[in-house]
Automatic annotation (TrEMBL):
InterPro entries: LicD/FKTN/FKRP_NTP_transf, LPS_cholinephosphotransferase. It comes from the Bacteria. This is LicD/FKTN/FKRP nucleotidyltransferase domain-containing protein. One of its GO terms (biological process) is glycoprotein metabolic process. Residues 43-150 form the LicD/FKTN/FKRP nucleotidyltransferase domain. Pfam families: LicD. The lineage of its organism: Bacteria, Pseudomonadati, Bacteroidota, Bacteroidia, Bacteroidales. Signal peptide: none annotated.
Length: 229
């Protein structure tokens, strides 16, 4: 059936809008890849290992690059390298980029590190660096470590995350609950949240064959060696 003139114009406009949106999205993907390259160079200079993680790892294997609809990058770094990584970034990260971490600013609400291009919020455009700890050999200690870390993440979220993000896409009852919970969490001292993380980390054991990440995912150390960038 032949399209009417109005429908043909509408389809053309929709196609152009989608094409423009996609081209803008590709620009964001390139920005994040440039950020990853800057981070990569810092790690190479300082002999710090990092590993592709989560969706970034999936994209590298399945799509031979980035997942087409994903523009952030997820990495793992061993927790024992935190201080060396911070020093290396302070010394060698190009001035076009910046990073945020709770190990330098208690205002940062995530326990992982974020690297971002200047001019963009680290909440929007970023390379995320998640930490890997040696997984406890005892199932009881492993369970306790997961519980403590989950608690510190949830409490940290409610303590430090702006209310507009907590209310996003919520109905009125949920928004009221979020505001109430946010108010209650304002009375929890930040040192208590950090203390939960320290307790979790204190249970790590470096001489076991597994790593554990902040989501409780167990990773075989020998397997990670194959995946190094």
């Amino acid at each position: 059936m032949e399209l009417s003139k109005t429908e043909a114009i509408f389809r053309k406009e929709m196609h152009e809008k989608l094409e423009n949106d996609f081209n803008e999205f590709v620009c964001y993907q390139k920005l994040v890849l440039d950020t990853l390259n800057a981070f990569h160079n810092v790690c190479i200079q300082s002999h710090i290992d990092y590993y592709l993680a989560y969706g970034t790892l999936l994209g590298a294997i399945r799509d031979k690059g980035q997942i087409p609809w994903d523009y952030d990058v997820d990495l793992w770094v061993k927790y024992e390298d935190v201080e060396r990584l911070i020093s290396a970034l302070d010394e060698n990260l190009p001035e076009d980029y910046y990073y945020v971490t709770r190990y330098k600013s208690k205002k940062h609400r995530h326990f992982m590190m974020r690297i971002a291009p200047k001019g963009y919020s680290s909440e929007v455009l970023h390379v995320d660096v998640f930490w890997l700890w040696g997984a406890p050999s005892s199932p009881i200690k492993l369970k306790r470590m997961k519980q403590l870390y989950n608690k510190c993440k949830v409490w940290g979220l409610w303590k430090l995350c702006p209310i507009k993000y907590l209310e996003w896409r919520q109905g009125k009852p949920q928004r009221l609950y979020a505001r109430f919970k946010k108010e209650v969490m304002s009375f929890v001292p930040i040192w208590y949240v950090d203390g939960l993380q320290k307790k979790a980390v204190s249970l790590a054991e470096n001489d076991t064959p597994f790593y554990i990440d902040e989501y409780g995912l167990l990773l075989e150390k020998n397997f990670l060696i194959v995946l190094i960038w």
